[in-house]
Specification:
Elements lengths: L4 H11 L3 H8 L3 H8 L7 H13 L2 E4 L9 E4 L9
Helix pairs in contact: 2-3, 2-4
């Protein structure tokens, strides 16, 4: 999964996480998250995998790039089901 700085910020926002929270859960430096989200650095692939894994384990789903989603997207996985009357 290739994650953009914008998707990283959005995923944190959906979860209500600070940069420090994501950094702790991904076991990377907070500065790495901050610099990535500002598009100042491109972290190593392993670091990006760790960031994505931390977000996904909290329920974030990354959506692929499609014609109507130009840069990909995110959503929160919902474990509930629909109730029928």
């Amino acid at each position: 999964m290739n994650i953009s700085p914008e998707l990283c910020r959005a995923a944190r926002g959906l979860l209500g996480w600070s940069q420090q929270e994501l950094a702790s859960r991904a076991q990377v430096a907070r500065k790495t998250i901050a610099d990535f989200e500002l598009s100042q650095v491109t972290p190593h692939p392993r670091t990006l995998r760790d960031v994505v894994a931390a977000l996904e384990s909290a329920g974030v789903e990354f959506l692929p790039v499609e014609a109507n989603i130009s840069r990909g997207g995110i959503r929160i996985r919902w474990e509930g089901g629909l109730r029928r009357a």
